Amino acid sequence: MSNDAATAEATGATETAPAPEPIPHGLGASLPPADARAKTEGTFPYAADLWAEGLLWAAVLRSPHAHARIVSIDTTHAREMPGVRAVVTHEDVPGAPLHGRGSRADRPVFASDVVRHHGEPIAAVAADHPDTARMAAAAVIVEYEVLDPVTDPEQAFEAEPLHPDGNLIRHIPLRHGDPEAAGEVVVEGLYRIGRQDPAPIGAEAGLAVPRPDGGVELYLASTDPHGDRDTAADCYGLSPEQVKVVVTGVPGATADREDQGFQLPLGLLALKTGCPVKLTATREESFLGHVHRHPTLLRYRHHADAGGRVVKVEAQILLDAGAYADTSSDALAAAVAFACGPYVVPNAFIEGWAVRTNNPPSGHVRGEGAMQVCAAYEAQMDKIAKKLGLDPAEVRLRNVLATGDVLPTGQTVTCPAPVAELLQAVRDFPLPALPKDTPEDEWLLPGGPEGAGEPGAVRRGVGYGIGMVHLLGAEGADEVSTATVKVQDGVATVLCAAVETGQGFTTLARQIVQETLGVDEVHVAPVDTDQPPAGAGCRGRHTWVSGGAVERAAKMVRTQLLQPLAHQFGMSTELLQIADGKITSYDGVLSTTVAEALDGKELWATAQCRPHPTEPLDETGQGDAFVGMAFCAIRAVVDVDIEIGSVRVVELAVAQDVGRVLNPAQLTARIEAGVTQGVGIALTENLRTPRGLIRHPDLTGYALPTALDAPDIRIVKLVEERDVVAPFGAKAVSAVPVVASPAAVASAVRAATGRPVNRLPIRPQAAVVTGN
Length: 772
What we know:
This protein is α+β, with helices and mostly antiparallel strands. It has 16 helices and 29 strands. The protein has three domains: 48-147 and 205-280, Aldehyde Oxidoreductase, domain 3, CATH 3.90.1170.50; 296-475 and 615-766, Aldehyde oxidase/xanthine dehydrogenase, molybdopterin binding domain (Aldehyde Oxidoreductase, domain 4, 2-Layer Sandwich), CATH 3.30.365.10; 481-609, Aldehyde Oxidoreductase, domain 4 (2-Layer Sandwich), CATH 3.30.365.10.
């Protein structure tokens, strides 16, 4: 017996059990995700876990070449194999032969005459066993005439057309200010950004089930179910009402991660066989099929005055779109518009191109366009500081953007833009302690515990990166979302087609309803295309647009709930408030619980949210193209072994413009994840494609950062200056740390080594200092 218990027994006192921890509630609380337990225990149903009676298995034959003419396709041997139920090629596509994300449908379901990239689908097979399906796919005989691939985007301008639409997808010439303007100091740079893969935790999977009406249901880890439905309907020659997409658990998404090259064949096979068909892609197929970040070539020239203030920026930006257009037009618009960064630049002349090559397709990956230019313009700021002998942070502070300033696109920044405050916060944050130069602290070396480095060769560097991204779609995109909120028996249900991809929408929806209606138990219904569309889950649109729709619907239900009480007491509903499950009036005359007010009623409302419209960039790159923007400043501290070129990121200090913190724990996790993803972009992630062929399409050849690679991440400041046009005033937080952190790491390596560091990821030879 403990002394405390003995004392209690002797005095006759009884111990009181500690009060239970209060359950987080409403906006501003760290409400845990509803599916956290299931995902932790491994019981959460992902697409790869699906099953149906009479299930067949699918496999896709993909091209081994980056560029080839298809002479013939012979499926005879595959069709005759025991257990094979169907083989489909381009000849079996009854509807539109082309599809694609973005504004252009330029990608064939199956290659017919020409193969344009490594891994392009040629045929698909359905069989009664997955091994049989794979063997049958391999038995399809394709005769190729191999062609020389165009893999250098600079050669695409002069090369023969790789596509009927030509090699140039988009050209944006931005003109802003005086072309004759010049500065006392001029710095130039040539920068290259490699190809990163979104590397989803779970590879793509799906199930297609034929319907009695001749349609099909697709069970997919889709992030844009209505977009996928419409594409599939066009492909199958069906009406959208005959195709239903049901969203299964999404195993993480940092991009539009689904490979439509297997989604579309899946439905074709189900329609052809009349049986459910399932496909789970291998990791290799995942690398071959889905889109990647645009590799980018950037040439920059900055003019500055003697005080380090930027006078003019000239730049050329070339995006490698790979074989198809996908979202390259959108990525180029972001790259050109943000080419000068979050700095005041009175004169800017930017040329931007997106071109087709025979490399793997590029598309939407978090921070597309903005990430690539951030690495370049921050390198230029370092060069200005070095040439003038100024502190790199001070040079940035003399140029930073603020609310009311004008972007090179001519758009006035009307949203909060506390860039100076963010930079000052990370600059003034205490630096981490220096490592001890002793064998006992060998783990502090860039090479790790068993690294080859020597303590005497380690140099520490401090660098900065300031990033900006746009929120929601751009250039006239119609951003709209619809949500329904129902309340019955004290339980609220939210119906909205916004997909939970890990960004926390379902948790946010629960918090909104809790805050607005005072109902503790809130469920978010599964997503399918029977619900009105909510758009793709990217660029923070579900926090803003779908969250806004949920809030409006919940407020409409709130009015329905309060109107009878307000009428009874002769007051307006605005004089009543809901808090902690209670309804009270401003004068205290009325006090009741939400449960008593509901009293078995069923209330519901449907609402839409549509932000203010934007416009396309014109022929000189001018226009109000963006709904809103978000900003982030990061200070990186790195240790570099200057003899072998190994880099260890010691610490990243982060200050971010968030508008309003809706869920502190979730927000912290999103920022830390984005920063860590940026570290991978800076140091390890590079999908190598010699002659257009993906080398080592697996997670041993493609080096993702692990928990051991993650640095100390210090979130030193969150600026909560609400954006008045955004619901709740909040801004999305995931993308901008991805944009800023690679630039910050590269800046720190430059500071440690004195080398230019003009390529991402940073190769060891770029960090080696000779002659020491």
